[in-house]
Each structure stands twice: as structure tokens, then as C-alpha cells.
Write a structure and sequence with these properties.
The protein has about 120 residues and is mainly α. It has two domains: about 45 residues, no CATH class; about 45 residues. About 60% of the residues lie in helices and about 0% in strands.
């Protein structure tokens, strides 16, 4: 079987269309192999692409400090964002500082309410 794809090059890259054509070929082969199968059970990706999507893109493991509680990590991240956000403003912003102080105090209240101890 032969076919062609007509698409807008302003919207899609050639590599994207090649991948979509590959999906169509895989889907058609899957239909031929199992004509009575439900659509949800048919393959769309070849085994290599499925492995990449399921395992490769989801391999997001990152080191996590075992000696820190989540609220301490959140405080540290908020402090970094505060410094960066306020530094990007043309004039030092009292509102920016106040917002992060409010966030900090809300976090402290949450820690007390949840009785988190480190």
C-alpha cells in the first residue's frame, strides 16, 4: 500500500509527519493482525518508541536529601524563587517580599497544624 501526506510546513516539521506516518503504518499492521480487536487494544507505536515513551521519558528519578523534611525543601525553593523574582523586577518590590513572607508564615502554620517534626 502506498500513500502520501499533505500538511502545512508552517505547523508541522517533516520529522513529526514521518513519526505520524509510522504511527499510521503500525496501526494498520495492528488492525490486519487482529481485525476484531478493540481500537483501544491496537498498537500505535512500535516497540522502540513505546519503550522510550513509557520508560525513557518517565525516568525522572532524582537524588533526594534523606535528612530534610519536605517543608524545609519548600522553604529553600521559595527563598530561591523570591530572590530571583524580586531581582528581575526593575524596582525592588515590597509586594514581592510581602507575598513571600506570607507564603513563609502560611507554611509555618501548616507545619504546626500537621505537627511535622524533624
Amino acid at each position: 500500500m502506498q500513500g502520501s501526506l499533505l500538511y502545512s510546513t508552517d505547523l508541522f516539521r517533516h520529522s513529526t509527519m514521518q513519526r505520524m506516518a509510522g504511527h499510521l503504518a503500525t496501526l494498520l499492521a495492528s488492525v490486519v493482525a487482529a481485525p476484531n480487536a478493540r481500537i483501544s487494544h491496537l498498537e500505535l507505536m512500535d516497540p522502540a518508541e513505546r519503550e522510550l515513551v513509557v520508560r525513557g521519558f518517565n525516568n525522572t528519578a532524582a537524588p533526594y536529601p534523606a535528612d530534610a523534611c519536605i517543608h524545609n525543601l519548600f522553604e529553600a525553593a521559595a527563598a530561591k524563587v523570591q530572590a530571583l523574582s524580586c531581582a528581575l523586577l526593575p524596582v525592588p518590590s515590597v509586594l514581592c517580599t510581602c507575598w513571600f513572607q506570607q507564603l513563609y508564615f502560611t507554611l509555618q502554620l501548616l507545619v504546626v497544624l500537621l505537627a511535622i517534626e524533624c
